[in-house]
Amino acid sequence: EAGVAQSPRYKIIEKRQSVAFWCNPISGHATLYWYQQILGQGPKLLIQFQNNGVVDDSQLPKDRFSAERLKGVDSTLKIQPAKLEDSAVYLCASSPVAGAGNTIYFGEGSWLTVV
Amino acid sequence: QKEVEQNSGPLSVPEGAIASLNCTYSDRGSQSFFWYRQYSGKSPELIMFIYSNGDKEDGRFTAQLNKASQYVSLLIRDSQPSDSATYLCAVSGGSNYKLTFGKGTLLTVNP
Known about the structure:
The complex is a heterodimer of chains A (about 120) and B (about 110).
Chain A: E1 5-7, E2 10-13, E3 19-24, E4 31-37, E5 44-50, E6 53-56, E7 65-68, E8 75-79, E9 88-95, E10 105-106, E11 110-114
Parallel strand pairs in A: 2-11
Antiparallel strand pairs in A: 1-3, 3-8, 4-5, 4-9, 5-6, 7-8, 9-10, 9-11
Chain B: E1 4-6, E2 11-14, E3 19-25, E4 32-38, E5 45-50, E6 54-58, E7 61-66, E8 71-76, E9 85-93, E10 98-101, E11 105-110
Parallel strand pairs in B: 2-11
Antiparallel strand pairs in B: 1-3, 3-8, 4-5, 4-9, 6-7, 7-8, 9-10, 9-11
């Protein structure tokens, strides 16, 4: 079974520029998550989709971050304009459905450095 | 804001010893509890999950849950150098089963 695919794996941009990350979840997984992990910290949930609807985006900085999941499969996370503090790993994850005991599976992550 | 706290570490144990990792959570309504392992530069991978009070064993790993004390732990028996990693505690709850992570504990197993 193919895992969660993410691209690009690494990106270096200057502050105030924009960047977009793409995620393809495990086939058949209805729930998709974007997490931000800053070095030395645990992952922080940015947004959670159930199919193509948003169920939680309470920690998404909406003035600069946006995400969409068209057709309930692939997803894109965009940052515009980027700030230095956005330097982090952006982890996409998926699960069959969100539920008690349900396991989520992470992709390899997209490493962002803002200079 | 729901919080998940882990012993800050780093934790260092000799090879063959038992490593004990601890986690507390603030939301009494939390339903499921997970331990992830994260090697440096890699993404988190699931080790175990538990949702009933008591112990759950899987090979060298034992997860323990005490909902009354809002406490979950992970024991690693016969620790190996390959167990050296950051261990993340994660707690799920709420209508959307949102998964909240702690900051992680760095474990080093010395040969």
